[in-house]
Amino acid sequence: MKTIQIQKLEIVNKTKREAIEAIKVLREFVPRNQLNVIVNAMRSEEKQFFFNKACELADMIKSMPVTYEQDGKGQKAVAYLHYFRGNMDWYITEKDIGSPEDARQLQAFGLADMGTGYPELGYISIVELLENQIELDMYFTPTELENIKER
To answer: How many CA atoms lie within 13 A of 19 on its CB side?
Structure first.
């Protein structure tokens, strides 16, 4: 008889203070209405889930490659964030470094499909996505572009 060992995954719960710091990072990447929902949910019975989720998203954003770091990878480049509205999708592979004078996140690089089924690589204005309340997929798992195009 075969014995199977199961590894326990240790989940480290984030604190309220860590979640508040995460929100500061998310402001540049999450539309205001969606961010308000997250903040309000941090006051609910499910607050620990949202503390953890906010910190997870902020950590991913902070560790994302910056412009040109995935240059030359082609379809092997990894998309870290997914925005959507209706049948339109934006997959972010690199965040803009930005200038020291302007700490705001203005643009990124990635794959955009405006619902035509013909996605294109290029620069994506994060500001425009946020202004138009394009939703950030909070459950997206980073994946290579070749896997996205197959969907």
So the answer is: 20
Same domain, 92 and 141: yes
Q: What is the pLDDT along the chain (151 residues), one digit of tens a residue?
A: 555 555 555 567 999 999 999 999 999 999 999 999 999 999 999 999 999 999 999 999 999 999 899 999 999 999 999 999 999 999 999 998 665 555 566 789 999 999 988 899 999 999 999 999 899 999 999 999 999 876 6
Contacts 24+ apart (CB under 8 A), 129-132: 129/31, 129/83, 129/90, 130/29, 130/30, 130/31, 130/32, 132/85
The reply to whether 77 and 57 lie within a common domain is: no
pTM (2 decimals)? 0.85
Angle (CA) 93 97 99, round 5°: 155
What letter does residue 113 receive in the DSSP assignment? E
Return the axis-axis angle of helices 47-63 and 32-41, rounded to nearest 10°.
140
